[in-house]
Structures are given as structure tokens and as C-alpha cells.
């Protein structure tokens, strides 16, 4: 986010029992939980980075605050989220699953074919991503949700790479820059985020 | 269904699974890769070094440990469990030497470790050891040996094997490339181990640690320089092979 291409345009602060700090009035923007950025070169592209858990009873208000004032025509929403692969219910043997893998869910108005297979029943999407997708379905906004099932508890390079097919989708093609050093940059970002764990050697 | 049968490991599930043991095998996959190769006159153990924190002393993060002068092992999985197993194995090696005045055979110490692991899959209140081990060495008869144990307490002899993260990829590489030529001499066996690791190690030679045992010689750990030398040789050979290939096609 500090690459200079994105500009902060707002934040959504909230508090529930899962939040780590109790004082919401003195939260600096850096500590806020849902940050909104827009692309400097194309201000109509808005990115929301949500680092906290939005409780079920707060989701509706969050959605109203965020989407309420937006014109809903010509809007397209893409949601990226992760889940641990142990939550994935399938009749296949789990040893044949090659995690991380991507599954998609879309609203009725999203006409583009998704970049990966659709999420099969009985799997469901949880929390805020589900709330956003439901909201988009109700308000007939074309939206797609990409869910990555991964077998690690912390984000790592392989999981992030699993999202790569999305970059070739029609909606993002115009925004994607083909940088040959993208893998190197990703690696650097991932290694700085790695907390040293000595449990496994 | 699994959640009802994985609370206590002494319980079988209706379809015959011991879920805790299977989950322990998942814990092994979280450790970094280790590869073992049995040559004709040499045994090689190669591991992917875990990245060490800045302030951490590198010497205390070791995946390859000597159990006795002629036996050593590499593990993958829970560090603390490995420490306990290695300590027990080392004591057993010395106890055996003092009792029967002969050093342990590689198979004996492997069986000891495997039996220890199996005991923990059959008592209540304890969980299995979350490590797999590759045990290499030479017996008195001069034959090189490589054994692999896993959390369930089974052990098998192998010509070449890999454990830990990406073990499947490395094993497939070894299945394709372990030929009589590849282990014809010691240097080739060492190169095979490094090539196998380079398939899955992300930053090349500096993240590889290597140990060898030659017949009637003690364990030798390779220095970073020696490994770099081998890696450069391998890359040169690769380039030459590519050149030959492109010449053939043109």
C-alpha cells in the first residue's frame, strides 16, 4: 500500500470483543481496522482492506455506511478472502486436494465467467465477505467473491500466488501492470511479514 | 465424523483410522525438506535450512544430528519432539555400546526410535511424536544404510527418500534420477542430493545444509563454501546439458 499508487480515502472504525484495543476514539488512521484506498491513476477504483472481524450485528451498518452513499449503477465488486482448507467439505479424499486452491461465488448480475470453479455445496462463505456478496445480490450489483482455501494459518507466498489467475480476469486486466519482478516483490513482502516460528524445523 | 474420533489417540474410528497419527503426519509436512541418499560407499543427508531470525544463533537450529560416531539422522516436524527423540536415541547408543561392547547397528537404533514412537500411539493421554526421521550410517559390515521412520512408528529401508514440506516433489525427482550412474561415485551422490533439494528450496545453495558419512569415517558437515562449489558445478552441468539439447534441436 505504500507503493505510491494508492491514496487513502477513508476508514471505517468499529469495536467488538475481538478487537485488540478498547479505545476507538483515539485510534489513529494507521490503527483503524478497515482502510479504504483509491488508485491515484484511476480514482474510480477503490480498495478496501479489512483487518478486523466485523461481528454479525455490525455487518449491516458497515455495509450501509460503505455502500449506502455510493451510486450503485456501473459498480462492480470483487471480494478476496481466505479460509483454512480443513473447512472445505468434499466427498473426495483430502489427500487429492492440492491446497491452496481458489473457489468463486458470484451474484446473478455478474456476467463474466469466474477465473476458477464455483464453490460447491455444502460449503458456505462466512463473515464480512458473505455479507458484502449478499448485499450486492440484493441490490443487483455485479459482484464476485474469490475464496482461497489454504493449509497455513498465516499468509505466505504460495497462498498469495494462488490468487494470480484473478489478475487475468476482464475486470482487472486494465489495471494490471506486467512487472517481471512481481514475484521478487511478492517474496520480499511475504518474508517481512513472516513471524519467526520455531515450532517446526 | 473425524471430530468424534480424534480426541483420544487410543480410539480407532469406525473405518479403522487413528486420526491423531494421521494428523501427526500433517505436522511433519510443516517442517522443511530433508533428503537422504544411499550411495555405494557414502550416505548423504541434505536439508533445507530454515530461515533464522536476525538475533538467533544459527548453530542452535540444526536439523542434522549425530546419534553416534557412525550414525546420524535428519528430522522434519516438531522441533521439541525431535530433541526428545534424539536424546533418547543417543543415550541408547551409548548404553548399547557399554552393555554389549559393540556400536549399534543402524537398523537397531532405527527400530528403537520406531518402537518409542509406536508406544506413544498406544497410550492414553499422550500424543504421537510429530516427526519423521531419516537415519543413515554404516554398519560394521561396511554396508551403507538409510532408514525412514514416521509418527506411526513404522520404519523402512530406502535407497533414497525425502521428508517434510514438498517431500512428494523431491521423491518424484529421486525416482526419476536415482540411477546406478547417479550414485556411481561419492561426488555424484552428493550432487544428486543437492539437485533434489534445489527442486524445492527457494533461495538456492545458501539455504542448504549437507552432511555425509563415508565408510569408516566420522560424520562430515559441509561448510557453506563447499555447498556453493557443488551448486555452481551443478548449474554448469545444467547449462551444458541445455546447450547440448538446443544444439540437437537446431
Automatic annotation (TrEMBL), chain A:
Keyword Chaperone: yes
Pfam families, per database record: PAC1 (PF16094)
Keywords, alphabetical: Chaperone, Proteasome
Keyword Chaperone: yes
Biological process annotations from GO: proteasome core complex assembly
Gene Ontology cellular-component terms listed: endoplasmic reticulum; proteasome complex
Domain of life assignment: Eukaryota
GO molecular function terms listed in the Swiss-Prot or TrEMBL record: proteasome binding
InterPro entries the record matches: Proteasome_assmbl_chp_1
Family named by the database record: Belongs to the PSMG1 family.
PANTHER family: PROTEASOME ASSEMBLY CHAPERONE 1
Complex formation: Forms a heterodimer with PSMG2. The PSMG1-PSMG2 heterodimer interacts directly with the PSMA5 and PSMA7 proteasome alpha subunits.
Protein's job: Chaperone protein which promotes assembly of the 20S proteasome as part of a heterodimer with PSMG2. The PSMG1-PSMG2 heterodimer binds to the PSMA5 and PSMA7 proteasome subunits, promotes assembly of the proteasome alpha subunits into the heteroheptameric alpha ring and prevents alpha ring dimerization.
Protein name: Proteasome assembly chaperone 1
Native source species: Vulpes vulpes
Gene: PSMG1
UniProtKB/TrEMBL annotation, chain B:
Protein name (database record): Proteasome subunit alpha type
Major site of localization recorded for this protein: cytoplasm
The species this protein was found in: Vulpes vulpes
Pfam families associated with the record: Proteasome, Proteasome_A_N
Cellular component annotations (GO), alphabetically ordered: proteasome complex
Compartment(s): Cytoplasm; Nucleus
The UniProt record lists the keyword Cytoplasm: yes
Entry superkingdom: Eukaryota
Amino acid at each position: 500500500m505504500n507503493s505510491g499508487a494508492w491514496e487513502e480515502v477513508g476508514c471505517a472504525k468499529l469495536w467488538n470483543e475481538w478487537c485488540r484495543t478498547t479505545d476507538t476514539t483515539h485510534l489513529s488512521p494507521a490503527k483503524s481496522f478497515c482502510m479504504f484506498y483509491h488508485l491515484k491513476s484511476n480514482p474510480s477504483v477503490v480498495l478496501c482492506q479489512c483487518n478486523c472481524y466485523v461481528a454479525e450485528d455490525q455487518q449491516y451498518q458497515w455495509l450501509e455506511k460503505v455502500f449506502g452513499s455510493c451510486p450503485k449503477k456501473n459498480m462492480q465488486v470483487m471480494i478476496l478472502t481466505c479460509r483454512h482448507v480443513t473447512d472445505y467439505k468434499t466427498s473426495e479424499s483430502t489427500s487429492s486436494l492440492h491446497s491452496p486452491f481458489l473457489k468463486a461465488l458470484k451474484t446473478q448480475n455478474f456476467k463474466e465467467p469466474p477465473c476458477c470453479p464455483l464453490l460447491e455445496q455444502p460449503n458456505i462463505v462466512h463473515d464480512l465477505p458473505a455479507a458484502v456478496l449478499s448485499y450486492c445480490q440484493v441490490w443487483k450489483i455485479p459482484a464476485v467473491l474469490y475464496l482461497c482455501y489454504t493449509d497455513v494459518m498465516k499468509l505466505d507466498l504460495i497462498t498469495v500466488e494462488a490468487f494470480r489467475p484473478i489478475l487475468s480476469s476482464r475486470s482487472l486486466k486494465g489495471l494490471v501492470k506486467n512487472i517481471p519482478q512481481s514475484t521478487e516483490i511478492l517474496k520480499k513482502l511475504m518474508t517481512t511479514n513472516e513471524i519467526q516460528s520455531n515450532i517446526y524445523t | 465424523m473425524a471430530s468424534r474420533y480424534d480426541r483420544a489417540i487410543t480410539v480407532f474410528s469406525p473405518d479403522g483410522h487413528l486420526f491423531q497419527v494421521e494428523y501427526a503426519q500433517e505436522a511433519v509436512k510443516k517442517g522443511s525438506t530433508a533428503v537422504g541418499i544411499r550411495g555405494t560407499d557414502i550416505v548423504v543427508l541434505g536439508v533445507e535450512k530454515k530461515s533464522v531470525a536476525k538475533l538467533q544463533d544459527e548453530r542452535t537450529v540444526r536439523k542434522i544430528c549425530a546419534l553416534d560416531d557412525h550414525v546420524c539422522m535428519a528430522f522434519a516436524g516438531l522441533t521439541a519432539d525431535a530433541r526428545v527423540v534424539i536424546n533418547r536415541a543417543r543415550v541408547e547408543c551409548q548404553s548399547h555400546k557399554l552393555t554389549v561392547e559393540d556400536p549399534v547397528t543402524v537398523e537397531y537404533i532405527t527400530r528403537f526410535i520406531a518402537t518409542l514412537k509406536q508406544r506413544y500411539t498406544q497410550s492414553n493421554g499422550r500424543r504421537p511424536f510429530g516427526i519423521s526421521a531419516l537415519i543413515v550410517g554404516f554398519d560394521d559390515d561396511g554396508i551403507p544404510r538409510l532408514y525412514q521412520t514416521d509418527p506411526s512408528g513404522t520404519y523402512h529401508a530406502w535407497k533414497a527418500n525425502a521428508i517434510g514440506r514438498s517431500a512428494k516433489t523431491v521423491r518424484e525427482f529421486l525416482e526419476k534420477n536415482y540411477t546406478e550412474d547417479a550414485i556411481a561415485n561419492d561426488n555424484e551422490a552428493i550432487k544428486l542430493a543437492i539437485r533434489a533439494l534445489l527442486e524445492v528450496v527457494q533461495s538456492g545453495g545458501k539455504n542448504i545444509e549437507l552432511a555425509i558419512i563415508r565408510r569408516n569415517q566420522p560424520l562430515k558437515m559441509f561448510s557453506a563454501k563447499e555447498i556453493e562449489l557443488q551448486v555452481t558445478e551443478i548449474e554448469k552441468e545444467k547449462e551444458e546439458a541445455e546447450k547440448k539439447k538446443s544444439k540437437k534441436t537446431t
